Amino acid sequence: MGLTHINEKHNPKMVDVGDKDITKRIAVASGKIKMKIETKKAILEEKTKKGAVLQTAIIAAIMGSKKTSELIPMCHNILIDGVDVDIEELEDGFKIIVTAKTTSKTGIEMEALTAVSVGLLTIYDMAKAIDREMELYDIRLEYKAGGKSGEFKRS
């Protein structure tokens, strides 16, 4: 099987999805940020200098999903039907879970993964003045459905 993003002259190309069927597609991605307990407490109590960290991270995640094709070179610009962002507390930080949906000719995994990454980076940015040791980790696709490749569920 050949590389899909390389043309016959071995130059990069964007895959032609013109003949693909339009289907409902969904992707769920997640990621975590680890921090000091004091940092988590400051975020939860909204006592950081930059304001409401978690709410801002949710908005940033949604915005990130909408900018994916501008950030990832071979990503198609697709219409996004919806993006839902949830933030769960962990003992040592937070977990962001993004569910993204589209009715399109190509998938929405990259939009969900980008949303998670931008949300986590926003938390880091807004709390870095009190904790530069924060770590982003476990950014991953959890689930996807729709399209030719069918369903994927992380085991």
From TrEMBL:
Per the entry, what this protein does is: Catalyzes the conversion of (8S)-3',8-cyclo-7,8-dihydroguanosine 5'-triphosphate to cyclic pyranopterin monophosphate (cPMP).
Q: What is the similarity comment for this entry? A: Belongs to the MoaC family.
Q: Which Pfam families match?
A: MoaC
Recorded metabolic or biological pathway in which this protein acts: Cofactor biosynthesis; molybdopterin biosynthesis
- Which is an annotated GO molecular function term of this record? cyclic pyranopterin monophosphate synthase activity
Q: Which residues bind substrate per the record?
A: 74-76, 110-111
Q: Which reaction does it catalyse?
A: (8S)-3',8-cyclo-7,8-dihydroguanosine 5'-triphosphate = cyclic pyranopterin phosphate + diphosphate
Q: Tell me which UniProt keywords the record has, alphabetically.
A: Lyase, Molybdenum cofactor biosynthesis
CDD domains linked: MoaC_PE (cd01420)
Top-tier EC class: lyase
| Subunit-structure text | Homohexamer; trimer of dimers.
Biological processes per GO annotation: Mo-molybdopterin cofactor biosynthetic process
Catalytic residues, per the record, are 125
Q: What gene does this protein come from?
A: moaC
Molybdopterin cofactor biosynthesis C (MoaC) domain spans which residues? 14-147
List the protein's name. Cyclic pyranopterin monophosphate synthase
Reply yes or no: does the keyword Hydrolase apply.
no
**Family annotation (InterPro entries):** MoaC, MoaC_bact/euk, MoaC_sf, MoCo_biosynth_MoaA/MoaC, Mopterin_CF_biosynth-C_dom
Tell me which EC number(s) this protein carries: 4.6.1.17
